[in-house]
Structure formats: C-alpha cells, structure tokens
Specification:
This protein is α/β, with parallel strands linked by helices and 297 residues long. Helices cover 42% and strands 12% of the residues. A seven-stranded parallel sheet has the order 3-2-1-4-5-6-7, with helices on both faces.
Amino acid sequence: MDSPFKSDVLKGKVALLTGGGSGIGFELSAQFGKHGASVAIMGRRKQILDDAVSVLRSQGIQAIGLVGDVRKQEDAARVIESTIKHFGRLDILVNAAAGNFLVSPENLSPNGFKTVLDIDSVGTFTMCHEALKYLKEGGPGKGPSGGGLILNISATLHYTASWYQIHVSAAKAAVDSITRSLALEWGTDYDIRVNGIAPGPIGDTTGIRKLAPEEMKGDPRESMPLFKLGDKWDVAMAALYLASDAGKYVNGTTLIVDGGLWLSHPRFIPKEMVKDLSRVVEKKSRKAPTGVPTSKL
Ligand code: COA
C-alpha cells in the first residue's frame, strides 16, 4: 500500500532500529528509509541483517546492519558509536527488539521470565541510556519536532491480563513505564520526545506465528472488532506519524494499533434480542417491586 505521508518527512534523519532486520522492525526500517531517513539496523543474527540491508539498499535506502544484543551494554554502546561513525548523527531510536513465547506461569523458569525482561525492558533502557548523548544533540536539521525521538514497541497484553504471557506482560508494562518516565524527564531536560506503539496481532510476523500458531483451533479473527489482523504497514504508518513533525506535540503516549482488539469482550446478548429484552426489563422496573406500597414509590 502506498504511504499517505510525503516521501521526505524524515529527510536527513538517521534512525537506529533494534530488531530492525525482521518483522515489524524491518517494515519500520523500510518505511523510514522510503521517507528519507538513513537507517542502521541492529540484531543478533548477521545473516538476517545482511539480507535485510541488501533489500533496503535495493530500494535506494542508505542502510547498514550492526550485529549486537540489546542485553549487552557494550553491544549497545558499540552499535550506537558505529551508527554515529557511519552517518554522523542519530535522531531516532526505535526499540523493536523483543522476545516472546507462549508458556504457563508454572512452566516458566525464573530465568525464562528474566530473559524476556532483559531483552524488552532492560534492553530498551540500555539503548536509550547509551543513545542519550547523541539524541540530545539535535544538531543541524533540527526541525520543529525539536531534539531526538525514541519509539518503544510495546503491546496491549498487560492492559488487562493475557493467558501464557506473564513474562511479556510484565516486560511491556515496564517498557510503557520507561516511555512515560523518559518523556517527562528527557522531554523537559533535552527536548527529546519519547513515545510507544502497542501493536495488536500483526500478520506475517514471528509474534503471530508464536502467539497464534496454526495448530491452534478456531480463527483468532472471530473475536476482533475490525475482524482482521493488522499489517506491518499499519504499525509503520503510526511510527511515521510519531517520528515526523506531524507528531511534534505528542510525548509520553503509547499509540495502540490493534483495531480495537484490547477493548473486545464476548457479546453477552445477541443483538437481535437486545431491543426487545431491554423494553421488557424497562416495563418490569416501572411496576412496583413486590412488598413496596405504590404510595412510597
Ligand atoms: N517455553 C518456556 N521456556 C522457554 C521457552 C519456551 N518456549 N523458550 C525459552 N525458554 C526459557 C529457557 O528454558 C531458558 O530458561 P532456563 O535457563 O531456566 O531453562 C530461558 O528461557 C532462556 O532461553 P534461551 O533459549 O537460552 O534464550 P535465548 O537468549 O537464546 O533466546 C528467547 C531468547 C527465548 C526470547 C527466544 O525466543 C528469542 O530469541 N526470541 C527473539 C525473537 C522473538 O521472540 N520475537 C518475537 C517478538 S513478538
């Protein structure tokens, strides 16, 4: 699908995306690139990064791949330094690296719990921490949106509670909290905007393959308000809005891109019954409740 944004909304910007070699992270890298940004993508697997970089370059995007694990502070620092060395600046940091698997709490080892928090929550903080000195510089080309921007990819699992996702729910709750704290503190001190995006089920991603495996019975779309999976494109457009000057007054929010799924509940009365049932109940309630004299009503 074509983008509704002008192709130069991120012209001159440099973006570093963790988890940028695949899934949602890759789509964000490609869309940022198509809208004028140079992109550095970080991930653990060299082959995936190499493949992603060749696809990006074949689309005329200035891109580099940097191998690193967000769980290691030295990797975070090295990748950020390499980005600066190559592109000379850093305007946008996207924390898209994440770990996930379905597991019941009793079958999840404390190390499994910790592993996901280390990637999603601590990894996000580490990248922000190491990138601060460059993001706050602003530098030439600083637009009306001020200094740098951080975008944290989150989820909606923790708004209520989600089966078999205790680790990810805890991790993303921490990510949202980091988004708000940094929006307050770094927005005030350094003019850096910090926002998040909470995607729902997005088709053709590792997330959907892991969380709604084909082996599962039933069609997960049955319970969705918009009755469809999202596209990676939907998340990328939300990211473009937040990263461009269109989002210059948006700070500390996590934009939900899930078609309304997190609001959904099973319908408890069929729609055809609601009107009649409601009239019957209304009539009944106008009659005197048993035992109460009408004079007292
Ligand atoms: N069920 C239960 N526990 C699991 C698990 C599963 N499916 N997969 C991993 N774990 C546990 C391991 O048993 C281990 O705990 P232990 O030492 O107590 O046994 C712990 O998690 C770490 O596993 P390990 O495989 O050593 O970690 P890793 O660093 O190689 O991989 C993961 C990290 C587990 C998060 C892996 O799924 C990953 O790399 N994911 C990245 C991609 C991804 O998930 N994307 C989805 C985005 S929505």
